[in-house]
Every structure is written in structure tokens, then in C-alpha cells.
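Entry for WT7 complex. Fields follow.
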Amino acid sequence: MFPDPPAASSKAISSFLKEDRSFPPPAAFQARAAINSVSEYERLWNYAAEQPERFWAEQAESLLSWTRRWDRVLDWQIPHAKWFVGAKLNVSYNCVDRHLTTWRKNKAAIIWEGEAGETRVLTYNDLHREVCRCANTLKSLGIKKCDRVTIYMPLVPELAIAMLACARIGATHNVVFGGFSAEAIADRNNDAQARLVITADGGWRRGGLVPLKQNVDAALLKSPTVEKVLVLRRTGQEVTMQEGRDVWWHDTVDKASLDCPAEPLDSEHPLFLLYTSGSTGKPKGILHTTAGYLLHATLTSKLVFDLKDDDTYWCTADVGWVTGHSYVVYGPLANGATTLMYEGAPNHPDWGRFWQIVERHRVNILYTAPTAIRAIARQGSDIPARYDLTSLRLLGTVGEPINPETWMWYRDVIGGGRCPIVDTWWQTETGGIMIAPLPGATPTIPGSATRPFFGIVPDIVDIHGKSVEADQGGFLVIKKPWPGMLRTIWGDDERFKTQYWSQIPGVYFTGDGARRDQNGYYWIMGRIDDVLNVSGHRLSTMEIESALVSHPAVAEAAVVGAPHDLKGESIHAFVTLEASMSASSELKSVLAVHVVAQIGALARPESIYFTEALPKTRSGKIMRRLLRDIAAGRESRGDTTTLEDYSVLAKLRDSEET
Ligand code: WT7
């Protein structure tokens, strides 16, 4: 019933099954926690499941500021949800302005550390000033409500300022991760029909310069809808400014008026698009709207991280991913928290960098990815031991399943055995955290994301949509609408319906496999479609294949993932060349560079195999299971009787690998 699960997951299941370590919340943590017992968690979860509209309305009332109240909490025409129908509010007002009338006016909103070690602190008052100036600049560049703005920037405060400025005037932002290539920017500009790009001259990465503006220039050769480019000077590197199109941030934003009232917007006003990989075709522009998204991000930030006003909170994610949207920018700022941003790489100048930052800024809450923890743990426990990590009180993870050994290392070496760990399961599409412990209430078990958040009703079902028994693997689905859910795929509502709402009618299909144990704890097994999870980032095998095939030497390509110690999964490409081309190691490098140019460095194949043919079924479907076995260096198990040409397998095994 489980369609060909990735090999990495089946391995994970057996080790999960042996897991019997359980950690109740530490008493000292529990004593201060907002939700501090299992019974309180269960009471609220049941209440939210039975009366979701009442639950969310109460939260909306107490957590957010509105300029007009809603007429209805929810309008649910499956699969289209409208939350807080008829209400008006502004996200930028909720994240910034409303704190100015409280003691938080001079509280640090953003603490930023650059890769070279320089720091900046922006209070809420500072942030307000900069957001207003930036918003006025957007207006002077002709940007209006509902226009799309692409943001392609390094991890600097101006990135958050640009997002909040868009939100302030009702422009829809489309943040593109700074590691993506010119091709990827152009695709996203075109799909979103963006009118403006906000970028920087460059960014710093491991002491080197990333040519952001140059990438934008290349992308704009193929982005006819983009009229203007706003450029922040970050590195001082040489860039070309095109007269009439490109303007400097310091010539415009720094001189703009401070007066820019936040525009009251409809609850369902489009706040942002964020492109993510699906199993087929081009990246999907996931659409999130205003009120529901903000409420979900705000409440989960408050309760899953148990945010307190004296916390220094650090989510290490890049703002180019949804984690950075919800848990670097919107969630923490709406709560009036202090959010830390670090511009650079975790290993610059060495693998102690994260711990140096924790020590330097006395970080209390650290939210990062299993892939980062694995990479750091591998360098040895003596590196973190050189730093004072006693300020930490809570640890979190996101992006992929965390293996229990890594979890234990995180707990013992980083958390000193004293910090709860929140393993948070969610997706770009869900907008916010869906399954996670509440750190003052939920006993944790290494490897499990534990139990659903309030108002979230998941299930594990078989292919027919029937709930499976405890400890049986199946498809993870969500049975009730929730405020932060994606509203559609930009420009492709049909794809939204087929990808998320058709596999199993009536429920949201996550694309993840999972099981629920006897205690109602969820164990996420990973993606069930042809989507890889490389270092916590979703990549579509389809996209990488298209990139390969776009090279003139390539006739056909199949891409699969294999388990990887650090990255979770690594990318392996099987390539059939055009008849006139001959295989060589030079060509492998050329193809790897080509993929990087098309998509970005994170899509670089770990290995490329040249093969005369790909193993296919008689109906022409590539048998990825066999390729996965080869990539992982395993004997092929299982059925090969549907294989069209048996000799292909032997040839593949002989094909030399890079
Ligand atoms: C996919 C979503 C959510 C922000 C980062 C990734 C995997 C995410 C966990 C977790 C096991 C996880 C799932 C999910 N995933 N968090 N705690 N345990 N797997 O966002 O790029 O939309 O990817 O990441 O497979 O479907 P994304």
C-alpha cells in the first residue's frame, strides 16, 4: 500500500521502532511554560478539534490587532478556505507598529550578525522607521496593492524590512533564496509576473562574494514583466546599474519619508508567494494570505517555542525558505520577540560559529535543521565544549526527520541535558508548524515530532483514505482546514486541487509517509513522491532531470536520491547521452555545472552515471527503485519482472561512477 518508499525511510522505521527513550519536560522549564501539562494540552486540543471556529476566533482576538472585525470565522468550500471573512488588518502593523505603544518600543526586534562578525541591532522603533521608508520607496517605484515583488537578497535586516514594506502596502512578496541561479529567478519572476526585484550588489558566503545583482541582471534578460530593480549596497562589489531601471537603496529608501500608514487589508489579501518543488513540472508558487497565516505563525511561535519577552530567539533558517518567513520574521515579530539573524555559513570561519553566536548573544532558543546538527556533530563534541551554551533553554529542529542519535547529541552536547527539544513537522504549504511537542507539556521521544498542534487534525490513511491501525505506515493527511494553509498554487488552481486534494478526496494530502504509535505520537518517514530532501530542502527530481536534458549532450536523464550521512539525501543522476556524444569525466563536470547554473548549487549531483539505457517498465515508466538501489550501492531486491530490457541492469552496474 505504500508506493515504493525512499530507502532512507525504511531504514529509519526499523530504528524508530526500537526507540524507548522518553524525556518529560524538565521541571524548571515546565514551571514557566505557557502550556505546562499533558492534560492542559489535551483539553485545548480537544476543544480546538470540536469547536475550531471558536478556538481560532478566540486566538485571533487575543493575539492580533484588527481594523475591522470578521463577519464569519471560516468559509470552507473544499478545497478553498477563507478565514476571518470580511475582516481587515495589516501584517506589518501587527509585527511592528503595535509594539511602539508599549515598552517594547526600544526592545531589540532584530539582532543581526554578519558573516565577518559585525553586528547590528534594530529596535522595534528602528524597524518601524526603515519599513516605512522602504514602503514609501516601493510606492514611488510604482508598486501598488497586489503587485508582485521578487526579493533576492542576502540574510540582512533589509530582507525583513523589504518583506514588511511589501506587507505594509499590500504588495505580494516572492522571496527567492539567494543560492538560486539566474534561471531560477527568471522562472519565478515570470510565473509571478513580478514588477519589481529587490536585491543587493552581493552577499558574503564563506568569505567569498555571491554575485546577486549580476544574477538578477542575467535573469532580467528573460523577465519581461520586471520594470525596476532596487539594489542594496551590501558588499561594495562592482555592479552595473541600468539607467532608468535600477536604483540604489541608499539613494531612495534612506531619503524617503517616514510617514507611511499601514494599509488595512482584507483577511484573504495575498501576503506572499513562495516557490517550492513538486514531483512534476515547474516549481509551484504557494500562496499564503494575510490573517490566517499570521495567526498560525504567531500562535505556534508563542507556544511551540514558549516565547518569553526576555528571550533571544534564533532560527538559523535562511529567509528564502518558509521557515525564515514564519519563524525568523512574521511569527517572532508579531509576538514582539527578539529575533536573531545570522548572515553566513555555519562553518565560517570554523565549525564553532553557531556556538560562538549563541555565547555572544546569549541565545535562549535555537531552532535549526537536522542536517546542520549532523554536520556540526561530525566535527566532534570538543568544538561546542569551548563555548558557554548555558543561556540555551529550548532547542528545535525542522526540515526532515532527525535520527535519534543526532537528537541525543543535540540534547546532551548542545542542550546540556537541560533543554527540551521540539521536533517540528510542517511544510511550505502548511504555513506554520503542524505537529510538534509543546515543550512544557509533551514528553519527547527522539525521532518523533510527537503530537499535533491545536486545531490540527492529522490522520494516517491507506490509499483508499481509510485510517490505518496504530504503528502501521501510511499517508499523512490533514482532515480539517487550518488558518495557515496554502490557499492555492499561483495561477494554477487545477494543480492545487490535483496535488493536494484529489489523491484522497476530502482531506489535505501532505505527500509524506508516517505512522502513529499506540500513544498517538507521529513518526514522519519522509516524502512518498519523487521529491528529494537534500539538507532539509525539497528538490524535485523532475526539475533536475529537465535541467540535465536541456544540455545538448543529454538524451535522457533520471535522478534519484540516496541516503547521505550529512545531507539526509544526496542526488544521483543517470544520464543517456546523444548518440554522437561520448562519455568522459570532463562531460560529467560540465553537466554538474550546467545543473548548478539552471537551478543552483543545492541541486549539484553527488554523482553522474552514464548509461546506454535506463531501466524502464514495458509501459515506459523509469524504474526508480532499481536506480535508487544502485545509487545506494545495494543489491536490487524486489520485483524486476516488469523490466522491459533485463540487460540494462547489468550495464548500469558496470557503468562507472564519478
Ligand atoms: C517537507 C516539507 C517546514 C519547513 C522546512 C521544509 C519534511 C519537515 C520535518 C520534520 C520529518 C520533516 C517533510 C515535509 N519535514 N519537517 N520535523 N520531520 N520531516 O519545508 O521544503 O516545504 O518541506 O520536509 O517531508 O513534507 P518544505
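NOTE: The chain has three domains: 5-90+271-526, 92-263, 551-654.
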